[in-house]
Design brief:
Elements lengths: L1 H19 L5 E3 L1 E2 L25 E4 L12 E7 L3 E9 L20 E7 L7 E7 L4 E6 L5 E2 L7 E7 L2 E9 L10 E12 L4 E4 L15 E7 L7 E13 L10 E14 L4 E7 L64 E5 L5 E10 L4 E10 L2 E6 L5 E7 L2 E12 L3 E12 L5 E12 L5 E13 L4 E12 L4 E10 L16 E12 L6 E15 L4 E15 L4 E9 L2 E3 L9 E3 L2 E9 L6 E12 L4 E13 L4 E22 L2 E23 L2 E22 L5 E3 L10 E17 L2 E14 L7 H10 L3 E9 L2 E2 H10 L1
Pfam families: CBM9_1, DUF5916
GO molecular function, one term: hydrolase activity, hydrolyzing O-glycosyl compounds
Keywords: Signal
Amino acid sequence: MKRCILLFFIFICAFSQAQDISKQRQLEAKRTLLSPKIDGVLDDECWNNVPIATDFIQIRPNPGKIETQNRRTEMKVLYNDVAIYVYARMYDHPDSVSHELVSRDNIGNADFISIIVDPFYDKMNGNGFFVTAAGVQFDAKYSQVGDEDANWNAVWESAVKIDDKGWTCEMKIPYSALRFSGKDVQNWGLNFSRRIQRSNTQTFWNFVDPKVNGFINQEGLWMGIKDVKPPLRLSFSPYISAYVNQYPVNLPGVKNTSSRFNGGMDVKYGINNSFTLDMTLVPDFGQVQSDNRILNLTPFEVKFNENRQFFTEGTELFNKGDIFYSKRIGSIPSYYNYSEVSSGDKIVKDQTEAKVLNATKISGRTAKGLGIGIFNAITNSMETEVEDAQGNLRMVETQPLTNYNILVFDQSLKNNSSATFINTNVLRQGSAYDANVSALLFNLNNKGNKYFVNGGGKMSYLRGEESSTGYSYTLRFGKQSGNFTWSYNQVYADDKFDPSDMGFFTNNNFLDQRIGIGYNVYKPSKWYNQFESWLNITYSRRAIPSAYQKIGTNAGYWVQFKNQWSAELDLSWDRKSNDFYEARNGQLYRAPENYGISLYINPNRAKAYNFGGNVRYFEQQLFGGKQYNFYFFQNLRLNDKIAFGLDLNFNPNYNYVNWVTAHGDQAIFSKYDRRTVENSFDAKYTFTNLMGLTVVLRHYWSDRRNKEFYLLKPDGHLTEYQGAPLTGMDRNYNVFNIDLIYTWQFAPGSTLSVSYKDAAETYDTFYTQRYNKNLSGILNAPQNNSLSVKVLYYVDYLDLKKKRKKA
């Protein structure tokens, strides 16, 4: 009888625990008169008698499991008139705590603790503050569907200690880092998260169910915050920088070495409780990492990652609708004018980036959920230095003074839904054309966030000598939560829709449809932690005039094993298609059937030495075209300060067929072999959590060795080319980069950085199938070397005001 009672009691406790994890947790807000010392030592008197948040719940590897007592987490939160304060005790064996030193805004191989707050409690937007066991800070902004903007930065304080019980952390987050209302009594959304790196375990205070779509919408509640008022949010970050650049131009009248001195300022101003103005005046982006340039044989533009912080931080409103590609501003302008460069001219120096003169962002969200974003940037004109046949030098304007604008209205609705209007506008000085794109978008979810429907319509308008108006729409609906998910997607664009002046654009004139299904298991079994599977079927037609383009399918399976290794298998098949883009002249090309198989292996990255990679195979059912890809990476951590990484990628192609050149109005294709080798090496030495040195070396080599040429016939098929011999059609491209950057955060928000860059690029030289010949050749080619020093100093107006009062 006693055993039955005991079993019944255990069952009731387990059932109650299972029920508790689905309920929203709440924490009472406590005001403090004494501010704790932010030193990571949890002995301040103010922490006594403060409610504790504990019993964290796993999201991985075992969703729903409550943390064990010997690995438990205890969190406390206080507030006063100037900041919120966080107490964190993470129980663990001290020798097991991972604490790799990395640069700010990185986690590395380290345990972390975090607090995520939603000051407006709209369950759609929030801010996260993370601290690793090495004391490294990471902060991020979260939007309504759980997207993480890791480029958002704030100035706040933290400290950690490792002791015989595990490790501890204290944080001070000033109100100047947050946006919130001025109500007398407030409730904020709140969650805490902890990661134990060695076991890849992540827990949350308020359970975040991986089967439910969204992250912020699964938060807890911090109740009863009284009499806190948003402070004046005003900060300045003036900078000065100096550059020395050396490139062996070796032309009369042109210096091989040049130097320049820059100065400018970033400004942040809280217009009111909800809206912030960000402005950069005469910005300097010379120290961002180099783009990974490649030999592009496709008819479409290559999309590069944005590395300039101003264009990545706090841009979630401007990225709605996918019509904003920030690299258009300065880095990759869409409009070039070389009409004044004649065939006999030689380009001495071609400016590929337009100088950004200033850029401004105003963004925020009202108490009723209306998000407003205003963006403006101005780039200077671009000039190319040209030498004529007589040796005379002149400057030719290839890009005029340009003004870029974005306007966004985003209304939050119930159930994490929204309706959005966004407009982009590009105005150019002089006779160059202007461009305007507008989009009206919607995203609707049911009450449980299980089903969704979203989409919208877009219109582009180009105004110039030949104006045009184009249209596009998107419709998508399906099931987004649960183990089984599905969706249907339809996208249409007419033959005049063109958002490329401020967005990334490949082609228009299509009607694409896709059906996707997925089945995911998040509960671990005996041999795996989690697995995902998916199947997608796509069908595409040309819109005007209507014609079949392609149909294909891809399926895949991903599994994470108990030892934290994971594997992914992908299969793809595309039926014979009608390609209207490969010929570059609008002519139809009847592309062959192709299929592929890929296998990816990823290791447990918590290990000091880890390695992985993938093997891929694709076959083109024409002339026996075959493509292989072998990728291997390895990482080595010597200790918590020093780490190395090596990536090796080999991609050989045999008997592939694609467009190669135009002969009059005829498209010429070729059968070719191609080898691509990309090797990169990176290393870091982190002196402290505020100072580090990183270096990245990359060599990319790719060629194209044509074997036979074909003429594209009017019916879209290929026939043997019978014209005059074609020469100079082979390609051999090498690029080499070194990026070495030293950074020191010498004061909160203030940095000193020193950057050295070496870049070399060659076309159609060192033609050989031997990799070492190409590497030797690019290393001996003319190198573009630059050295820069930049000092940025953060000034908070409130701190400045306090210092004046004391004086």
